[in-house]
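Write out this protein's structure.
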Amino acid sequence: MRNRSRRYPGDDPPCDEWSLQNSKTRLALFNADFRNDEEGYAVGEKGLILRTENGGVNWQRVPVSHSANLMRVDFADDKNGWIVGHGGLILRSSDKG
């Protein structure tokens, strides 16, 4: 067994820079996009969209009228973003979501 205090070639990098954040949902999350250190979105199953304005300390649910699994979110700038989901669903926002 390897001594875990010693680093070996091929070992995964230490995870000292990751911290656990509570999304307050039990639904699966599939993707996240941050425009800067503070503003970000996460998307997941059953139409779930979450938004944070404080770097992920707090997450708020964004209401939508779709229940498809949302697979990817991407913002081109601070206002314009797209979300894609199952069934060919594409959602677009021009006001930060």
